[in-house]
Design a protein that fits this description.
about 425 residues, alpha/beta, 5-stranded antiparallel β-sheet, 13 helices, about 20% strand, binds N-carbamoyl-L-aspartate, binds zinc ion
């Protein structure tokens, strides 16, 4: 007898029914026939996907836990069908020393209900070689906060480390952002819809091209976070064809929303990089040119969001909206089922070196999300486990939603109820 068998599963909308056997938290078999098990879950013909992987979350723990913490953030993840998250280092203190990295590992191990990895920040360059043996998902560099000299030093230092070390980048050019922001401020411009002019697409495109030059020079893999402009994506893909190891990430808001949302939602849609116009942004039909959807789940309080355009905190919470929005677009015929799997499961696992995640195959972790393609409703932040109380997808009528999430065989979400589950560091 195995531990668990999920029966009447569909691996894709067109496929035949199958059974997934789970033993010791791993997938033991994928067969047509039922396997005797201690516990059986009848999926009743619904879709099963590999647990989603979010390569870009901000859980704000430690230091900013009034916005989110590792418990609420990971509960939001499980509620949205995510079983693995990679947390960003811009906490207080930042996760840019070995000591802080170890402290955050402890916090996450105690609080997280899903599996996790941590991106390391970069501050004192001497810490880089001390953090590397702790297996960060990547070294995250905010190009909008650093000058070129420091950037070069960081690449040089990481290139000298043993093994494969990824650099994740927030690609916006600091000088252009500062220049455009001060000019708009001095002109007294205060409307939310002007924010995109303070951080124009060119700032991103310039930073992307610089990142690609650095990646090529130092032969390092780079991951471009939250790409907002079509031209940035073209640059990234061009350099791939020249042999650079580069991956691209898009957020659900940069994919599905555009700058016209500022008129409706004001600063609630303020994020870095800003939402772009329809002509500048990457369109839904171009999703197959992007490697990963990362949510950039970046929660803030309503009070912080409701300040004026320059003071309002940038960032949008996304863990509990992403799959609903994507499945709805699948149902409308705008995107394929295969691309959802590719950008939220397979590519994140491959690019960020997760040996046991991202695929429903024998020997992989039994991270599974069950999706009801027909479930309907309206997105509202009132249903969030996240502490964030806003979303630019508020009122979005969805068709299709996650109804159960299993992390290494343990049910962590069923019908939007969350159960305790000890999340693990995936790179330990
Ligand atoms: C992020 C946050 O709130 O931490 N905000 C955002 O607008 N994306 C930080 C960042 O990625 O710049
Ligand atoms: Zn960022």
């Amino acid at each position: 007898m195995i531990d668990l068998c999920l029966i009447n599963c569909k691996l894709s909308p067109e496929s035949d029914l199958c059974c997934i056997g789970v033993e010791n938290g791993q997938i033991a078999s994928l067969k047509k026939t039922h396997i005797p098990a201690e516990k059986t879950i009848d999926v009743r013909g619904k879709i099963v996907l590999p647990g989603l992987i979010d390569t870009h979350v901000h859980f704000r723990d430690p230091g900013l836990t009034y916005k989110e913490d590792f418990k609420t953030g990971s509960q939001a993840a499980a509620n949205g069908g995510f079983t693995t998250v990679l947390d960003m280092p811009n906490t207080i203190p930042p996760t840019n020393t070995a000591k802080e990295f170890q402290k955050k590992l402890k916090i996450a191990s105690q609080k997280s209900v899903v599996d996790f990895g941590l991106h390391a920040g970069v501050g004192d360059l001497k810490e880089i070689e001390k953090i590397a043996p702790l297996h960060p998902a990547s070294f995250k560099v905010f190009m909008d906060l650093l000058d070129n000299g420091v950037l070069q030093d960081i690449f040089q230092k990481i290139a000298l480390l043993p093994g494969k070390n990824i650099i994740s980048l927030h690609p916006e050019d600091r000088d252009i952002v500062n220049h455009c922001t001060s000019r708009l401020k001095s002109e007294g411009i205060m409307e939310p819809e002007d924010y995109a002019r303070a951080r124009p697409a060119l700032a991103e495109e310039l930073a992307v091209s610089q990142a690609l030059v650095l990646a090529n020079h130092y032969q390092l893999p780079v991951h471009l976070c939250h790409i907002s402009s079509k031209k940035s994506l073209q640059l990234a893909n061009m350099s791939k064809s020249l042999g650079c190891t580069v991956s691209s990430e898009i957020t659900p808001h940069h994919l599905f929303l555009d700058s016209s949302c500022f008129l409706k939602w004001g600063n609630l849609t303020k994020t870095n990089p800003p939402l772009r116009s329809k002509s500048e942004k990457i369109s839904v039909s171009e999703l197959d040119q992007v490697d990963i959807i990362g949510t950039d789940h970046a929660p803030h309080t309503l009070e912080e969001k409701e300040k004026n355009v320059w003071e309002s905190s940038p960032g949008i919470p996304n863990l509990e909206t992403t799959l609903k929005v994507l499945i709805t677009h699948y149902n409308k015929g705008n995107i394929s089922f295969e691309s959802i799997k590719r950008v939220l499961c397979e590519n994140p696992a491959r690019i960020f070196n997760m040996q046991k995640k991202g695929f429903l195959k024998e020997g992989m972790d039994a991270d599974i999300v069950i999706v009801d393609l027909k479930k309907t409703g309206r997105i509202t932040c009132e249903d969030f486990y996240s502490k964030a109380r806003y979303t630019p997808f508020e009122g979005f009528e969805y068709v299709g939603a996650p109804v159960m999430t299993l992390c290494r065989g343990m049910t962590v979400m069923e019908d939007n109820q969350i159960f305790p589950n000890p999340g693990r560091h995936i790179y330990s």
